[in-house]
């Protein structure tokens, strides 16, 4: 829940913008798919089995958020289910990219640790819990605004996705990759 991981927060919010609180099982699967994706590349990069230009990753992370937000904005009607299904793909595949962003940070935390298994597991479990807390807060706010205040669900998704899109686009422009 560290604001240094703001890009992570934006991505999770973009993923969840399509859902309502009663979809909590789908949301947990979605967030877990994201954790699995970034855990794979985080482990590979931390073990230095995978090396990618960090400037490229700092560009690709906000790009994943932009794509997810745009998908929310231009997705077909909810009855088709396509928007929801592609979100699972985004969570897992884009999680692979996000995991690469954490590898330098985790390596600095590990120092000269002999084994990375336990710290890697603890790091990923902490991320999962943090993401679930953020999702719980976001979904509670969504439920209040949609269910109690009467805001249209589609409008809510569009507004949240547009805000996330704008923020991620600015992060993408600020990336050193250009």
Task: Explain what the structure shows.
- The chain is an all-alpha fold and 178 residues long.
- It has one domain (3-174): Growth Hormone, Chain: A, CATH 1.20.1250.
- Helix content is 78%, strand content 0%.
- It has helices at 6-16, 24-46, 54-74, 82-110, 117-148, 153-174.
- Helix 1 packs antiparallel against helix 6 and helix 3 (54-74) runs antiparallel to helix 4.
- The longest helix is centred in the C-terminal third of the chain and has 32 residues, at 117-148.
- Keywords: Membrane, Transmembrane, Transmembrane helix.
- This is HupE / UreJ protein.
- The chain crosses the membrane at residues 6-21, 28-50, 56-74, 86-106, 129-149, 156-173.
- Pfam families: HupE_UreJ_2.
Features:
Growth Hormone, Chain: A; mainly alpha; 178 residues; globular; 6 helices; transmembrane helix
Topology overview:
Layout: H1 6-16, H2 24-46, H3 54-74, H4 82-110, H5 117-148, H6 153-174
Transmembrane segments: 6-21, 28-50, 56-74, 86-106, 129-149, 156-173
Pfam family, one: HupE_UreJ_2
Organism: Indibacter alkaliphilus (strain CCUG 57479 / KCTC 22604 / LW1)
> What is the chain-wise order of helices and strands?
HHHHHH
Percent of residues in helices comes to over 70%
Question: Spans of 5+ residues with little confidence (pLDDT < 50)?
Answer: none
Task: Please state the overall shape, judged from the principal axes of the Cα atoms.
Answer: globular
């Amino acid at each position: 829940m560290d604001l240094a991981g703001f890009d992570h927060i934006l991505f999770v919010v973009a993923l969840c913008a399509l859902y309502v609180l009663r979809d909590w099982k789908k949301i947990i699967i979605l967030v877990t798919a994201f954790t699995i994706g970034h855990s794979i590349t985080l482990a590979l990069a931390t073990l230095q089995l995978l090396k990618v230009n960090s400037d490229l990753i700092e560009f690709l992370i906000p790009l994943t958020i932009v794509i997810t937000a745009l998908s929310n904005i231009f997705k077909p009607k909810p009855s088709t289910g396509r928007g929801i299904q592609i979100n699972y793909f985004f969570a897992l595949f884009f999680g692979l990219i996000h995991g690469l962003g954490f590898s330098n940070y985790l390596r600095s935390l590990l120092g000269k640790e002999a084994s990375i298994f336990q710290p890697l597991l603890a790091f990923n479990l902490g991320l999962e819990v943090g993401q679930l807390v953020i999702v719980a807060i976001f979904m509670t706010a969504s439920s209040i605004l949609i269910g109690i205040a009467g805001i249209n669900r589609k409008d809510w998704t569009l507004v949240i996705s547009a805000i996330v899109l704008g923020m991620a686009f600015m992060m993408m422009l600020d990336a050193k990759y250009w």
